[in-house]
Amino acid sequence: MAAIYSGISLKLKSKTTSWEDKLKLAHFAWISHQCFLPNKEQVLLDWARQSLVAFYKKRLELTEDVVERLWIYIDNILHSRKLQNLLQSGKTVTLQISLAKIINERIAELSHLESRRNACAILSCCQGILSTPALAVIYTAKQELLVALLSQLCWVACRQPHGAMVAPLFEVLHLALGQYRSLQQQRGNPRRAFMDVTEHLLQPCLVLRHLLSVGTWTQAGQGQLRQGLSREVRSQIEAVLRGGVFQAELLSSYKEELLDQQQGHTKTEAVKGLLAPLDTVVTRLVDAGYCEAAILVPVVAGSIALLYKLFLDSYFKEGNQLLCFQVLPKLFGCLRVSQLQQGQVRALTTPEWTAELLAVEQLLSSVADNSIYNIATDRLRHGEVQFRFYRRVAELLVNHAQAAVPAWFRCLKILMSLNHLILEPDLDDLLSSAWIDAEVTEFRTKKAQEALIHTLFQTYAKLRQVPQLFEEVLEVLCRPAAEALRQPVLASGPSAVLRACLLELPLSQVLDTWSLVLEKFQALVLPSVESDTDMALKSLSLSSLLHGVMSNMRSLDSSTPLPVIRRTQRMMERMLAELVRPLLSLLDPPGPKPEPWLQKVSDSALLLACTWAQVDAMLSLNCSQYCSVAGSPEGAALELSPLPSLLPGVGTQHWRKVEELTAQCDSLGRYCLEQLYLQRMKSTLMHAGFRSEAALQTLRADAAYILGSGRESLCRRTVASWDGQVGTVNALTYPVAHWHLVVSNLTVLISYLCPDDVRNLARVLLRTLPVSQVQEGLAEEEPHVSLGKISTAILHSALFPEMQPLHSAFLACVAAECSSILCSGTQTDLSLLSQQLPWLFEKDYTIMSHWENRFARSGPEGAEPRGEIAQTLLSMVQSDFPICLEEEEVQNILGLLEVVSALQLDSLSPPCHVLYFLLLLSMAVTRLGRSCSSSMALRFWMTCYRLLGCLQRGRSARSVFRIMYASDVFEIVLTSLFKVSRRFSVETDDPSWLEFLQVTGMFFEQHLQMLINIKLSLVLNFGKIITFLSRCKADVEAAPGMQSESSNSLAKQLLLVSLTKLCQVLGPFVQERRPLQEARSVLPELLQQAVLQTGAVLRLCSAPGRLPTALISSVSTLLQADLSQRHGGGGAEVAQVPGTTPLSHAVLYQDVYSQLLSELPALAGDVSSFQAAVRFLELFFLTPELHPKKDSVFTSLFHSMRKVLADPQIPTQVTQDLEPHLGALFTQMLEVGSTEDFRVVMQSILQGLDVRNAWKADLQATLSAVALLKLLLNCPLSAEKASLLWRACPQIITALALQNREACQEQPVALRVVGPILDVLAILLRQGEEAIGNPHHVCLAFSILLTVPLDHLKPPEYGSIFSRLHNVLFSILQCHPKVMLKAIPSFLNSFNRLVFSVMHEGRQKDKDKGSADDLPVIVECARLVERMYSHVAARAEDFTVFSPFMVAQYVTEVQKVTLYPAVKSLLQEGIYLILDLCTKPDVQFLRASLQPGARDVFKDLHNDYLKYHKAKHEGEKRYTV
Fold first, then answer.
1. Cβ–Cβ contacts within 10 Å for residue 1086, how many?
2. Cβ distance 389 to 328 under 8 Å?
3. Which among 393, 311, 314, 388 has a CA at the least distance from the CA of 356?
4. Pairing relation of β-strands 785-786 and 884-885?
5. Please, which residues have CB within 8 angstroms of residue 653's CB and are 6 or more apart in sequence?
6. Fewer CB within 10 Å, N side or C side of the chain?
7. Strand 884-885 relative to strand 927-928: parallel, antiparallel, unpaired?
8. Model's pTM, two decimal places?
9. CA-based nearest residue to 1368, from 1426, 1328, 1414
10. In contact, 478 and 525? CB cutoff 8 Å
């Protein structure tokens, strides 16, 4: 044996043995169990290592292939299971430092593109070493090796490698960072740790972190690095930097460097030899040579924010605020923006500005979030050192405005929130660059701008200095500037901010602001506005600002102090006399075309006039002490007072000149003039004499002007959008603003519009509706209003049908559009078509009314005139219909029918109803060209028949039968469908075709049901229908030789649908014995014929021995009709009695029964087919004569139901959807079945609930048993059967508890089992209120509730489980009061789990940990908690003793989290009800016993309770009898 050992070693070391043989021998020696070698693993590893070391030290020459195979050989050994087992068994295998060194050297070479041949093998070897603790000692024992490895790995990653190398590189990096972090945590030499990080790791780690943050390897299309691994590496880098640069031991060194060295102990505590740690970090950070110039700016910017965050995480505590601030200027100095003031750097590009401003924002946010800046402390103790720094930052930001960068606005916002004095010296420049002169278009930037303006106004509102702020705004507005380039001052964002601010201000400050704007307008703008375009533009800006102040201030009322009312009145009078009228007097154009300045002045003047009129009307209505210049609409002399004018003191002649001026272009002035006319209409309607002829003429004239003013602009089909603010109305947005004005005031205008105006309004409404899904999608994305959005809103408004003139005119417009498209597709003479289909040429409803009157006077029912239209249509359908539509025309009609579908067709007037019925019927029978695809054709026909069905349900449906017989409509439609089916190429099982059959069947059903409801010539109509269907059946039976099999199959299905609907409608009518005397003997015969024909057609449609699933509903209907003709006065009981006449199709029913028993689980995917199948099985079960003699139908049906419930292929949601249908069948079975059958059911359920099924992982057996039990509990039971159920109840509850415990122990939790168990438990507890006698069985429910976990669930799952737990608790509380007497602690334990869970889930999370989309689920759960609190409070006598403990538990838990406001408000409303139960001693006990933090929370909670809840409650008691 010794020879074997020495032989292998000698051959491996021999120079004569080829390297190929050496590698093979080494491989054999490793894997072979027959090769015995002392310390074989160590020997083989040392041989491979020595060979590689010799090669890399140039002592041995090897080919690249041999080198690669040596690395692979070492890698295979390191990753082998054999080596791992040896190490686990305690055997020592030692790696030499030389191996670690050559690995580090090779990794250092990987940054060069030409040196990556063995990269993956080397990285894999390194991964094998680092992932095995026994081998990783080679690195952890010699820290410099690990630091070097980590540094080289980071530098390699910074070169941004791609391909197969990325994943192993980051795996090794992840392991190396973990090992180094472990060394850091061992708290060695802090100076060495600091130097290792700053000298070797800081720069590569920061560059790598930046690359990971921007998604270099995780972006779409690359996918080379897992998101999770990327986050972990980034987190490790941050931990390594914090552990090296910001150690707790270095705090003294930072204090010595950053603070004044007046404290003698600082030097002694500082780490020896480490005097300026921050300067060291900053020097390494700003070194320009460690990364590419292209990414240096974002790397430095991102790193500064990170380093400051890590510094605060490590050292921030009370008393260290100044130290934490002193870091800020040094880090800020690393940014290029800090050197712009001195002109030391070139101008920055927009991406560089974005990166650096984001860093500044994060720095300032950290200051604000950690309360580092205290204004008083900074001023009194530190000589305003912080304030001066923030002022420098503010000057920098204001002097170098970057309005295109959202972070610039956010930085200014934070500075404003820190201290308004920081920005106040530059307030004018700030307002100019951030608001008035800023060009902001991008949505995110607008939001940032709005947030800044909001903070600005909010701050000055709190300081009560809004007038001073407006003074600065006015200074900026009145500066010389390129006014034409300015954006509107009050767009939607700033306007909303101003509104919120003014509502909070006292009226005196609002009046001060108003006076300030007015004086500035009078002093600086009004004298120079004439012939000066820039001044005219300034006047428009000031008018917009004045409009914003006046429109958004709080209104006066009877409680307003009289001095404020008088001052407001003086302001109104002054504004009218000194500003509005002088501006209006300028609107007298000398020539036909106004100059630009005059146009802007007219906009300004009319905006102020409109605002003045609206505010004057509002003040007059709300404040009785306000005396309007225009005269009050109240008082005794109203009837004698003249009608309101547009504006006091301005004559009619001048208004005509103004109208001429505004009519020359779409402008703000025209829109404001419309507003003035609208305001006059409202004032006139409030006038006592508004019913006089003069008032009516004025109202009609004003309404006509408003509508006519923008008529031309609406014809231009603008796609612009408008933000809803008056100041942003211009030539582009005027059509939208005008249409918005008209539509939002339709209820005022519509009564005073002439018929032509109403028709024009209807045409505009139809034209501006979005006609395609693409436009609708765009409209939804656009945040502002557009023509399409406005029109869609009025179309779906509940008020639209109430505006009868407009509704009727709109319907006429749609009908005219549809008719014109149909006429465009005609293939015959239009004059002939106008005689055949006159309704297509109908301009109003006169022809319809003429037909109604003519046919109503035309004698008996069988008279010819009533069939005139039908015969014409039928002859046109039987021949080639003269209208043929191609694809484009069909698409256009479909767009119009979509509009019709949005209208309420059930309330049309009789003429309109008849017109639409004939129009839709004409469309339904129209031929479609070859360019129209099958899917579009089916969609078109389905839309037509759906709308025809809607008309059939309308209140005017009877009017159709005045001009046509129901049987004629039936024949026309079915003839058209048969003709279509011959030319249509579609499979009979195509989903779209089956949907079409369903829609047409619904139309037939509604049509025939209407005939039954109005009892109109039943014998005549049903007789003609049966005769027609008999002819159709004969044609279908004779067709196979003349038609293709496909078209004949479609015709059979159409015929079967029509016959089925006939049986479905006629059967119940005959069964109830409601027919009139003359029809009582005829209708049953007709029903018999229909049943026979339906059965025959069913056989034609069926494959030999099998019925298609789509036809199951037909069999169910046929069986019901067959039974109804034998039993007169239905019901399940009657159906059980054998009839004297045998069923017509008994064999068919039995075949279908056999088929459904085996196929019922397969039908679960189609709910409609499954419902039809279950209905058939119900009827079959209730018809004993059909039952097979051998097998029990009850047993067969029960086993079939179990198969459905236990089928693993059926999703849980589908099973839940099927439960109502199965429940109906189960109810009938239990009602008729015997006690023995019920015992079989109970035995099956108990077997399924056996816990052994859970141990065997037979999930479906448990689920089916729980589902069966739920169905059983929802069924009415006889006394004997109920007794059997409740005797087994203890066994059932125990089994549920065991099943629940097993399901909750699985990972993840088997929620498919837990949810249904909780449902069944709640039902058992509710229904067992009197039957469950043992309290122990009720208390078992608490153990079930406490077992169900509520953490680590997805939001939908959480909401579902939570509501079920709540239901169980509620069932115990409400239905088992005796048990609750002793079980209140258990109840509260279960309930508190729900409360604490809602708090945990409803806390405000980080952006990457939660989504606001999950909030509705949590809010609903919080609502359930509030409801349970109310139920508990209603049982005051039981819970009073426990109320302080409930409050204490709530307070203790709520202090740990910050809840979303919606969740917090609901929980507080609930706990207030418990506080109602607490006595004064309870409150004192809570204040004394709670911990300090919880005590503060309770104090706030109790104060809010007294302020909001108790005060309101006591206020309500005052009004209670």
1. 20
2. yes
3. 393
4. unpaired
5. none
6. C
7. parallel
8. 0.79
9. 1328
10. yes
| H or E, element range at 236 | helix 227-245
Tell the residue number behind the tokens 């278009």, with chain if given: 441
The angle at the Cα of 1433, spanning 1430 to 1435, to the nearest 5 degrees, equals 120
- pLDDT tens for residues 130-149? 888 888 888 888 888 999 99
DSSP line for 854-889: HHHTS-STT-GGGGHHHHHHHHHHHS--SBEE-HHH
* Alpha helices (H) in 1328-1354, listed in sequence order: 1335-1347
Beta strands 927-928; 721-722: pairing state: unpaired
Place of tokens 């014995």: 1073
Structure tokens at 835: 């005689």
845-884 confidence digits (pLDDT tens): 555 555 555 555 444 443 345 668 888 888 888 888 888 8
Which secondary-structure segment (H or E) carries 786? Answer: strand 785-786
In sequence order, what E strands does 1349-1497 have?
A: none
Distance from C-alpha of 1286 to C-alpha of 1498, rounded to nearest angstrom: 47
Cβ atoms of 840 and 850 within 8 Å: the answer is no
Residues found in the chain: 1521
On the question of pLDDT at 1200 being above 80, the answer is yes
Distance between CA atoms of 912 and 437, rounded to whole angstroms?
A: 56
Q: What is the pLDDT of residue 642?
A: 62
Phi, then psi, of 918 in degrees rounded to 5: -65, -40
Residue 879 CA: distances (Å) to CA of 104, 728, 882: 91, 60, 9
Closest CA relative to residue 609, chosen from 664, 569, 550:
550
Closest CA to 544 of 602, 491, 486: 491
- Tell me the β-bridge partners of 785: 722
933 phi, psi to nearest 5 deg: -70, 165
Task: Find how far residue 1256's CA is from the centre of its chain.
Answer: 42
How wide is the angle at C-alpha 821 spanned by C-alphas 818 and 822, nearest 5°? 85
Q: Tokens for 180, please give them.
A: 């180094």
DSSP state of 1138: P
Q: Beta 927-928 vs 785-786: how paired, if at all?
A: unpaired
Give the list of residues 6+ apart from residue 1428 with CB closer than 8 angstroms, or none: 1366, 1369, 1370, 1373, 1391, 1394, 1470
The radius of gyration of the chain's CA atoms, rounded to the nearest angstrom, is: 43
Burial class (CB in 10 A: 0-12, 13-18, 19+), 462: exposed
With b for 16 or more beta-carbon neighbours within 10 A and e for fewer, the 843-870 pattern comes to ebbebbeebbeebeeeeeeeeeebbbbb
CB atoms within 10 A of CB 386: 26
CA distance 46 to 53: 10
Buried b / exposed e over 1217-1249, threshold 16 CB at 10 Å, is ebeebbbbbbbbbbbbbeeebbebbbebbeebb
Token pair, residue 348, equals 């920055």
Residue range 17-43, pLDDT digits in tens: 888 888 888 888 887 776 777 777 788
Cα gap 245→327, rounded to integer Å: 13
The DSSP output letter for 1408 is T
The tokens describing 407, both together, are 């972070």
